[in-house]
Amino acid sequence: MKTVYLDYAATTPVDARVLKAMLPYFCEQYGNPSSLYSFGREARRAVGQARRQLASLLGAEPDEIFFTSGGSESDNWVIRSLSEEALRHGGGHIITTKVEHHAVLRACEALPSGIEVTYLDVDSEGRVQPEAVESSLRPDTFLVSVMAANNEVGTIEPIAEIGAICRAHGVFFHTDAVQAVGHIPVSVKEWQVDALSLSGHKLYGPKGIGALYLRRGHKLAPFIHGGEQERGLRAGTENTAGIVGLGEAAAIAAAELAEESARLQGL
Ligand SMILES: Cc1ncc(COP(=O)(O)O)c(C=O)c1O
């Protein structure tokens, strides 16, 4: 009996081309990207290339990409860092939705008192109403977080419309784009997002690697302390092979997105 795997929203297999790109970074080019000698330089070069590949897929600049362990970490990082900052100024208000992934919902629920969260309803198709976002804004709203594509029902949210509203009101806008990146065109500029979470294993990359796009000019408090990696914002020796795999997956997605997206729509 042949098994057919249909849950690509849960995870995807690693593309053979991605695996090929990653392999040298386990046993041959295993240098630490922070080391100053040639082994380190080669690893650092590979990390830099992956950063450019990923930035290119998102229409971002390489210095706006921060590698993380995945979508959950990226979501938690934004929510917790911005909340800590708000708490230093007396607290504040977050707007999100009832259909977010638990990485957003549980992170919001775990926030200390002083942070109030509005969880917006969605319509019968899972769509968030941009007008509801706008009418829920308060003077103390410091973050709006709305996912780009839903992991359970596949609804694509009106991110550009919500982004325009947030930008007009000067409110930080984060989108969990874990289910969107690599599947539909993503442009951080057209969407007017300040931060965007993504994950390697949803786009034929490896598990345990992801990224946070953070618009130039914003600074988040580090989520993991202890080293100068990721420009001091995310400590820990880089997952070089994973990063290379994510970069390759992004490059493949960029090259094949139009064709693949049309194929999936057809299915
Ligand atoms: C929408 C969404 N956000 C976040 C995540 C978590 O990503 P990761 O598994 O990389 O932590 C997932 C994974 O299922 C997801 O679908």
Structural description of this entry:
This protein is α/β, with parallel strands linked by helices and 267 residues long. It has a single domain (16-266), classed as Type I PLP-dependent aspartate aminotransferase-like (Major domain) (Aspartate Aminotransferase, domain 2, 3-Layer(aba) Sandwich), CATH 3.40.640.10. 40% of the residues lie in helices and 13% in strands. It contains 9 helices and 7 strands, in the order αααβαβαβαβαβαββα. It has helices at residues 16-22, 24-27, 38-58, 71-88, 102-109, 130-136, 159-169, 188-191, 240-266, and strands spanning 65-68, 92-97, 115-120, 141-145, 172-176, 195-199, 210-214. A 7-stranded mixed β-sheet has the order 1-7-6-5-4-2-3, with helices on both faces. α1 packs antiparallel against α9 (240-266), α3 (38-58) runs parallel beside α9 and α6 (130-136) packs parallel to α7 (159-169). The longest helix has 27 residues, at 240-266. The chain is globular, with a radius of gyration of 19 Å. The model has no long low-confidence stretch (mean pLDDT 97). The site of pyridoxal-5'-phosphate has 12 residues, from α4.
Mean pLDDT across the residues is: 97
What small ligands are held by the chains? pyridoxal-5'-phosphate
The proportion of residues in beta strands is: 5-15%
Beta strand count = 7
Estimate percent helicity: 40-55%
User: What number of domains?
Assistant: 1
Q: What is the top-level CATH class?
A: Alpha Beta
| H/E element sequence | HHHEHEHEHEHEHEEH
pLDDT below 50 for ≥5 consecutive residues: which ranges?
none
Instruction: Please compute the radius of gyration using only Cα atoms.
Output: 19 Å
Measured between the Cα atoms of the first and last residue, the distance is 23 Å
- Name given to the CATH homologous superfamily: Type I PLP-dependent aspartate aminotransferase-like (Major domain)
The computed structural class is alpha/beta
Oligomer: single chain
Shape: globular
Q: Just name the CATH architecture.
A: 3-Layer(aba) Sandwich
**What's the arrangement of strands in the largest beta sheet?**
1-7-6-5-4-2-3
Q: What name is given to the CATH topology? A: Aspartate Aminotransferase, domain 2
Count of helical segments?
9
Query: How would you characterize the largest beta sheet?
Result: 7 strands, mixed
